[in-house]
What does this fold into?
Amino acid sequence: MRKKIVAGNWKMNTLPAEGVELAKQVAAGKHTVCDCVSFIVCPPFTHLSEVSKTLEGTGIAVGAQNCAAEAKGAYTGEVAASMIAALGCKYVILGHSERRQYYGETSGTLNRKMEQAYANNLVPIYCVGENLDEREAGKHFDVVKAQIEEVVYNLTPEQFGKLVIAYEPVWAIGTGKTATAEQAQEIHAYIRKVLAAKFGAAAEECPILYGGSCKPSNAAEIFAKEDVDGGLIGGAALKAEDFLAIGKGFAK
It folds into this structure.
């Protein structure tokens, strides 16, 4: 059985005290969700220490939204994977569509970030996905395949065994367009096939999360699909009630 994961990407939202309060609310309601679901919260860097302390012993894991491509040194403003790990983080989001789009992250950069994550025992949540132009041009399979081949294919089998993939249909986030559960399943199944071409049967064990406007109203339908193992949640992760309700998309 693959791990069922609901991860919350808070992005650049909440102040530290608000983040701690949100974490407390998620922890308080976790008992209402099936034990089969693993929750992860990914606050801004400024909150990681306090949120980690708040969630200690609750079974809710903490992740960072990014890490530096270098181990340490004269890189003003960067945050090293070792620093993140030292604060109690277990996960790190890498290759998010916003990082690719706004900050020019390339596969070359992401290979170095993956290396840093693994060197510090962090589990990468590696994001892939196509934009609207690529989807309308029918290039979505090619785009996702390249993002996997250029980064994930460089992992050792042992590293691959500690990877989470998140598929983001960038065209369905904040555009008014919606990806159907069938579209999600189609691309998730394709991703698993691309992973299997390199890693064989181990691809069946890799969790693939859906990251496109997943909310309480559609979570159950999306999570029911064979190759969808959970969600990477944006806006809905900022309300504990909604975040927990998405977790309930997995039947007990």
